[in-house]
Amino acid sequence: MSDSTPLPKIGAPATRALATSGITSLDELRDQDLDALIDLHGVGPKAIRILKEALADEAGKPAS
């Protein structure tokens, strides 16, 4: 079992679109071009903003 950080609440359509693309955690999101994810059906500018904020917040956390 991994200690991956779940995706933030971005809405069901965006979450499904990311899951369909194999992205189900922030860890899997780190290697992605977030601006390219806007092309996925269901992912809009608000979801991209929330994801960027979550990644920035996660990067600022001390390692546990």
TrEMBL record:
Any Pfam family hit: HHH_5
The entry's keywords: DNA-binding
Repeat is among the record's keywords: no
Molecular function as annotated in GO: DNA binding; nucleotide binding
Protein name: DNA-binding protein
Gene source species: Cryobacterium arcticum
